[in-house]
Amino acid sequence: YDVLLFIVLDAQFQLFTVTQNVQYPLSVVVTPNSAVVSGATVPTFITGQTSGDSVISISFPRLDVGTTILVTFFAKSTNNIVNGEILTTMANCSYHSSPSQYNVVPPYYYRFYLSKSTLPFTVSLHTSLSAITYVSSDLTETPNTDVAIGENVTYSVTAFFSGGTYPNTHIILLFPSCDVVIGAIPCPGVIDVYSVVLSAASLTSSTGYLLSGLPSTPLSVPLVDTNADGYNDAVDVQLGTLVSDGFPTGNGNTITAGSVTVTFSVVIPAIPANVGGKNESFNVSVTSSGHPVALPSVSQTSSIVLLEPSLSIVLTAPNTTFSNTQLEGGEV
Predict the structure, then answer these.
(1) Mapped to the 3 state alphabet, what secondary structure does 35-60 carry?
(2) CA geometry: angle at 311 spanning 309 and 312, to 5°?
(3) pLDDT grade for 212, boundaries at 50, 70 and 90
(4) CA 272/CA 278 separation, integer angstroms
(5) pLDDT at site 228
(6) What is the end-to-end Cα distance of the chain in Å, rounded?
(7) What single DSSP character describes residue 326?
(8) Per-residue pLDDT reduced to its tens digit, 25-46
(9) Distance of CA 64 to the CA centre of its chain
(10) pLDDT of 216
(11) How far is CA 309 from CA 188, 273, 305, in A?
């Protein structure tokens, strides 16, 4: 995001050798050549306007009574910020009480003064998930929300990360699974995930799932059978420290976030717990821990209804002499 700061100096009496300094935290850099000074004569110098500078320094030889100076400039946070971090910009103005030509050598007879101001910003990162979207199926006769026993279906979901750093980041997929009946609670059914592929945009990951320089290359991730029943029911995409290159667009208020798209394929196995009419749900969530202020997790849930075919067979004997259900010897 862009930060617009105004520093206003109201001189109640003449000030001499006025120096205005603005210092940024390490996670903020000044926008080159953005400083504009109005309300006073041209300053003696303006420094700190090159990329990567953390200080802007502006000097004026003197300010007359009633003078107001407005210094406007832009700065931008870097993507190494974490949620809850406090970024404090400091402004200070030093000046003294008499012309320096009367005090060229020690002992100085004027007094130095220093005015300060700080402006803190709290970093607020955001994650979000799109809805889980149906992509394709090998059985086109079933509706998108209904799945037949043995049908293979592919879904996708996209996680978005605003610009910043996300330590210990996970995308977790959980599917219903069971191999025993626990008390009076029946098995909720089983969905077997057999393929998960990632693609990313405008971000990198420290684990190698999403390689810097190859942000759009799909990479496979391992599947987990949590209860050893032979069906994969969980996926934990461990992204480590994720860095999103989200940035402002247009007027600076619209943020383009980094994203990870998870495309996964599932099959409904033919087990006794999977029966027609049953509603089964699965969940995708995103977590990131290790921030100064906890970042809330986000999740999406989708449901399917299991379908089973129903075929009726009816035998008839329309050409019998008496009735369809009675025969005599030799009758055809």
Answers:
(1) CEEECCCCCCEEECCCCCCCEEEEEE
(2) 155
(3) very low
(4) 12
(5) 84
(6) 90
(7) B
(8) 778 877 788 888 877 666 766 6
(9) 50
(10) 44
(11) 20, 16, 13
